[in-house]
Design a protein that fits this description.
Helix 1 runs antiparallel to helix 5, helix 1 runs parallel beside helix 6 and helix 2 runs parallel beside helix 5. The protein has 169 residues and is mainly alpha-helical. The protein has six helices and no strands.
Length: 169
Amino acid sequence: LVDKDDLTTDLKPPTYSGYIPRPPTEAQYKELIEGFFLDTTYVAKFLWRDDLVAAKHILDHSLKQEHLRPMLEWHAEIDHQWSLKPGPYGRRMKQYLRRDLWTELESTYTGPGLDENWEALFRTIELMKRVATEVGQHLGFTYPEQLEQRVLTYLRKVRQLDRKSDTFS
C-alpha cells in the first residue's frame, strides 16, 4: 500500500503483542477453576446415564477447550515470559507446553468406553489441578483444594451409583 496522503505518519509502530494474553486476575483464575469443576458434574451425570455423546461433548469441549486450555495457555505464557501468541483451539500447544504436561494432556483423550471416559475425567481433573496449582503459585493465587475434594467425593459417589436407580434420570 502507498500512503500518498501521509495518513499513517502519526501512527505508532506495531508492537506485535496484540494477541499475547495478559496474566489473569485472581477472580478470572478462580472463575475458570470453579466453572471447570461445575462441568465435571455434568460429565459424571451423562456417563452415569450412559449418554456418551453428551458426556464426550462436555469432557472434550467444555472441560478441555473452555477451562483447561486457557489454564494451559497461562502456564505456557509463564514458561515463556508472556510472549506467546496462542492459536485458536489449542493450536501449537504441543510446541509450547512442557513435554510432561503434553503427555498428561494426551492421556485425557479416549474412546467410547464408559470406564475409559470415567478415567479420562479423573485424569483431566488431575491435570487441571497440577497446572492450576503451578499457575496459582507463580501468580500468588491459592488453588481451591476444598472445592476439588468436595467435587471428587461427589463424582466418586455418582460413579458408584446403581444405574437402575432414578436418582439422576
